[in-house]
Amino acid sequence: MPRQTQGALLPPIPGPKVRRVDVYRTLRDAMLDGTLPPGARLPSTRVAASDYGLSRTTVEDVYEQLASEGLIERGVGRGSFVAEQWTSHPPGGRRKAPVRLRPSRRGVQLLADDRCQEPLLVRPFNAGVPDVELFPWRTWERCWRRAQTQTGRGLLNHSDSRGYQPLRSALASYLAQFRGVRVRPEQVMVFNSTSQALHAFFLLLLDPGDSLWVEDPGYPGAHAAARLAGASAIPIPVDEAGIRVSAGRLLGPAARMAYVTPAHQYPTGAMLAHERRRELLAWAEEQRAVIVEDDYDADFRYHGEPLTTLHALSGGNRVLYVGTLSKAMFLGLRMAYAVVPESLVEPLADVRRQLDSFPSISTQVALCAFINEGHLATHVRHMRRVYADKRARLLELLAPMLARGWTCGPSGAGMHFVLYEPRPGMAARLARSSGLALNTLSDYATAGVKRDGLSIRFGGLSMAELERGAATLCTAASVVQLERGR
Ligand SMILES: Cc1ncc(COP(=O)(O)O)c(C=O)c1O
């Protein structure tokens, strides 16, 4: 492109007093958006200084900076020109149409499944989240503030990818007390979330093309992590006793891993029966496979002793255990933990370093105090009663539906249960017509379900919201049933 011999008109800068930074930004932006096109000659520093009411030294300084960034070219006796190669815009200041960047084939595959989306607005009945109104904010704030002051500048640097050592010890004691999981702190790792732990496990232990069992219906996060690792998730049916190991043997004989939620199957609520636990562990032993045990809301079993974990039953050999504080505390905390054989801690920490280095140290230090001072244990005990009361009240409120043939799945733990439909198609119709935020069991299934139902997630709802939601649901159910002639 021929160079102009006249200096270009410089863009005006509004305001009473022009500063150096204003001139720099205005010229830079004008070059980048094509207002000053490639090859345009800039006025001399003397002219520009006079136009902008600045000293010549200041403008010289700006031109030098633009030249050092490659935006303009300067030559003694030649003047200063907008560099040819820098701007992506055509002369005359017209922008090109925005480029549409296309996802890769893997990206397209990842995007094909949007089931990991979580609702931003909690309402009946999408609320499988804790009741944050009852969280001890003041106590948490105190722990947080104290942690920041005590740790001071130590918070500002890199920290351990395995997690903050005192927190790993605190979690080991908490797990021994609450879940009967007896482990050394060296086996505990801190993650931002269950999903992140699953990503690290799958990336480290599965090759692209390897298969793993996932429960069907099941947790979408496990499918997502498998897809990202290039592994093939084989849906294994679940019944009232949990994952059907015998079906797994037929459907995925060569699987190298099984992802399960034994304490409270997600989303059916089933508890993995003793016999199935034995079968699953025997399968893993035969196949030299790994079991990932997701104990996501086992803190909230309402009656009796907590179930023995697969981790404890196996002696921790073939079971990687993962739990989250998203349910016990609050979702925005983004803290989860894993218990793994000591030989896997360093390799997993290495994967972790490659994913996002390490968990937030500020949060870990505060959490450590919250656990060590007993606040987590107190809160969990309190919330157990709260969720048990909410569940009991909800079942009372849903009595009209239960009287019309809907049945409630296992509901002895956690913040959700399933209402099974009396006749095929009713759950889906109700989910569409009620105006409530409802998912059906088949929304979580890959191979379909024998009998569909509504996933009722209630943890984060107030009693008033439960009452309003249940009334709307019962009315909508009676309309659907009238239309279908019961
Ligand atoms: C089975 C299961 N695991 C884990 C989680 C949440 O884990 P996190 O928030 O730590 O990723 C959920 C959330 O609903 C879940 O359903």
Biggest sheet strand order reads 4-11-10-9-8-5-6-7
- Described by the principal axes of the CA atoms, the overall outline is elongated
Main sheet makeup: 8 strands, mixed
- Structural classification: alpha/beta
The distinct bound ligands, ions and cofactors come out as: pyridoxal-5'-phosphate
Annotation, overall tally of beta strands = 15
Q: Provide the helix percentage.
A: 40-55%
Low-confidence stretches: 1-5
Strand content: 5-15%
Radius of gyration from the CA trace?
Answer: 30 Å
Q: What is the rounded distance between the termini? A: 79 Å
Mean pLDDT, to the nearest integer, reads 93
* SS summary, helix count: 18
Task: Give an overview in words.
This protein has 486 residues and is an alpha/beta fold. The protein is built from 18 helices and 15 strands. The chain has an eight-stranded mixed sheet, sandwiched between helices. Strand 6 and strand 7 (242-243) form a beta hairpin. It is elongated and about 90 Å long. Pyridoxal-5'-phosphate (PLP) binds at residues 128, 193-195, 219, 261, 266, 294, 296, 324, 326, 336. Residues 128, 193-195, 219, 261, 266, 294, 296, 324, 326, 336 line the site of pyridoxal-5'-phosphate.
